[in-house]
Structures are given as C-alpha cells and as structure tokens.
Amino acid sequence: MVVARFRHGALALLCALLLLTIHASTAAASASTATHPAVGASSATLSTANASTATHPAANTAITPAATNENDDPSGTGPVVVVGFSGVLWNNLNAETTSHLWKFIDRAGNANIVVRTVGETTCPEAGWLTLGAGQRATDATGGCEIIPSPEQTESGLRIPGWEALHNANEQSSYQAEIGLLGDEIAGVDAL
Prior knowledge:
27% of the residues lie in helices and 12% in strands. The chain is built from six helices and six strands. It has one domain. The chain has a three-stranded antiparallel beta sheet with strand order 3-1-4, with no helix packed on it. A three-stranded antiparallel beta sheet has the order 2-6-5, with no helix packed on it. The protein is an alpha+beta fold and 191 residues long.
C-alpha cells in the first residue's frame, strides 16, 4: 500500500529534482545558461545581461555544458545545474535507457529533492516556483497551468501573468516570495 501510494505520488509530484554539480571550464560557466523563469527574479521583468536564453520546463530538462577535463576548473567547483523531472524515480534511470543522463550523473554530484507545494499534488510549474521561492508556492490557478515563456521587452524578458502568480502566492497561507532564489544570486559573481 505504501509503495503504491508512493508510486502514485511520484507520478503526480515533481518527484526528482536532481541537483547536479558539475565541473565546468570558465568559458562554459560564463556561457549563457538555460533557466526556468519561475526560478528567476521576483519581478515580472528578467534581466538579459547574464543569460541569453530562458527555457520552459516543457522541454523537461535544462543542462549547461559540462567540461570533459577535470583540470578545467582548478578550484574544484563548478556551476550548480538543476534538472527537473516529473514522475521519474531513481530506479527509472539506467545505462541502457537513459545513457546520457546516466553518464552525466556518474560525473557529477547529485541529490534527490521532492518539493512540496501549496496544493495537494505538485504540478511541475508550482514545483519550479517552489524551488525559486524556497518554500511552498502555487501557480496562479492551482490547476497545473503552464507558466508562459518569457517575452522580450525593452527592459528585458517579461513573464506574462507574473503579477497573477505573485498575487496568488502573496494571498496563500505560505505567502511565498516567488523568484527569491534568482534575486538572491543575481548579484553574485560565481566566477
């Protein structure tokens, strides 16, 4: 019964966020990275100064280029890459069916995080908002709505409906500050 409930929950929850630390060269680290807009800045406008691309989680993964030579980064540290999956368990990963991810995991440090959101089940969008807020968050409707891809404006990238997302979280019992992670690391020079 517990296993069946876990499997059911795993399909409904954002069950595997892999935090992967990879060794990357300075060039790879300074290259544009792919991020989900819900993890980014808390305002509706995102700066394009540090990233030229923003990908939507409908693509299921966002991976920055990894270095192949461990001597590329003498400090022994590299960027943190978050790969988000919905409905994937660790035992779903193997060398035969997920060979690229399997090799990636083999070269990186990894962890499993199951995020809990405001709702009874965790939709991927609310999971990304939760990751960016550092506490339980919700999408604007609570109905697993897809957060629109950012649109280019004169002042940077703008996420349509960000104000509704912000208001929904401000009015929830958790009062999550969506985009907090992006705000906190925006001024950090990681290189």
